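To whoever is on call:

I kicked off a structure prediction for a single chain this morning and the downstream step that reads the tokens threw a length-mismatch warning. I double-checked the sequence; it's 285 residues and nothing unusual in it as far as I can see. Pasting both halves so you can look.
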Amino acid sequence: MLVLHGWASDSTTWSVARRSVDRRRFTYAYVDFPGYGVARPAAPADGVDAMAAAALAAADDLGWHDFGLLGHGMGGGTAIRAAHLAPERVTGVVALAPVGPRGMPLPARSYEVLRGTWADPGPVLGTLAPNLTRDQRDALVAVTRASLDQHVWETYLANWTGFDFADAVGGYSGPITIAYGVRDPLITAGYLAHTMVDLRGFTLVPIEGSGHYPMVERAPATVRMWEDVLGDTTEGDAADGDAVEPTRHRTKGRYRWEQRRPHPRSTPTSPRRLRPLRTRRRQPW
């Protein structure tokens, strides 16, 4: 499963959810978009197509032909775009609080407010995700400051507000699930009904007790939801009776991964292709 983060931080934002994932069923690869986290030396992607291309390139590096896509915020919108760029490869999509194919044009004043919040995103995060604990909010703020700079912040703000691929969403017929936090003031049911209208079809899932970060605010329930949805489409690689060993944490340039190691006769992806993650910062979650 290829996992795409949102605007405000790199793939570290999935740390809480990672405690609940079923590593005996799934291999997760957590992609950092160019300019973020382990991909910070790279120039930021210019537009949603470049973001989708970065995600598909990560799958190529892993040797994955078929995979599910999970994304949050701008990563959710990018997952939808990637599925339409490579429909023969994507087995299913789950998008959490996603920016839709029509983007999210903002009033000039609101745009400028968001552009200036990289230095102190705490108040905005608190508004978007009212169920975050103070420690969780502070951790997200710390990750924002550590994983990207002002230039990357501004570049991706322009990207996600300007998503515009509604005329190019007819080529993917696989399952798409759109999940949103009931208490999210930004990605609401009304917004999704408007911006997702161009898709062939999708399932809309409200997450009670959550705002914009359901994978943090309601992590166990949200993980169960996406694993139930994507399970039937991503588990076909391993034959019955395959041996499963503990998770391995790796990195290769622009993503981190956690691997379900199957029997040698099944999934061909080899951990020897990836170099070990030599340093790992302690997470304040």
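Update from on-call: the warning came from a stale cache, not from the record. Cleared it. Sanity check on the structure: Residues 236-253, 260-285 have pLDDT under 50 and may be disordered.
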